[in-house]
Amino acid sequence: MEKNERELAFLRDLYITDDFTRRFTELADKHLKLKDAENVLYMNAGTGTHCFAVREAAGDETAVFATCENDELLKIAKDKAVALSSDVEVSLMSYESDAFDAVIADGSLTSPAEVGELIAEAARVTRPGGKVTVMFPAAGSFGEIFSLLWEVMLEEEFAADSVLTEDLISELPSASSLTELAEAAGLTKVSLNSENEIFEYEDGAALVASPLVADFLMPRWLGTMPDKKKEQVTERLAQLIDSEDGDLAFRFTVKATVLTGEKAYSH
Fold this sequence. Notes:
Blueprint: H1 5-29, E1 39-43, H2 49-58, E2 63-67, H3 71-84, E3 89-91, E4 100-106, H4 115-124, E5 126-137, H5 143-153, H6 163-166, H7 175-184, E6 187-201, H8 204-209, H9 211-221, H10 227-245, E7 250-263
Parallel strand pairs: 1-2, 1-4, 2-3, 4-5
Antiparallel strand pairs: 5-7, 6-7
């Protein structure tokens, strides 16, 4: 059964931020360019962990603002801001165009179909000449899971729903499509940097029970499939992993990618 926003917010703070999101933010930190930025917006800040770290690293001359995806994440982020005595202004606001010197957007949990929209929104609120940084999983991610999930969906009892998983691999954005999306959003000097991140689980049961897979990835991958069938698919996936890997741990790869660019000046 899928969890509500409050439950997901706590799970994201307790498990996802450190186990998953950190792989993206550490890569982003290597490419962030905040020098001379008077104000910075952090989009999709989750429960705030990375945006507070960005604020601390940016120095007193830089004001940092952050937007959260929903009220439950916002509540946790605000509590953290108080606990850390951070002056990051966290909200659900939608800001005006050309408002920030630099914008950071976390798309690590964003649906691949919405990555273009996230890049465009980050570019919109950046001033001409400002820096944009967006992070997300790119093509090549989750392949080890997708191949086994596809095998499960070929079974007769799931065949009617197999269309839900047919596009899982192809919908992940490629380097060329990401560059096109960034340029269409008005970015120049576009650069992509990726690192393969390995996630390891003791066995199939541990994989499908993990908060990352059970509560964040699988609900998106299986879409509108009835809950009962989702449970059957995940159970069969775990069995398939263990039958193929035996006593070996199961690993899958995520191609963590950071896109950087500069908003073009209009003519």
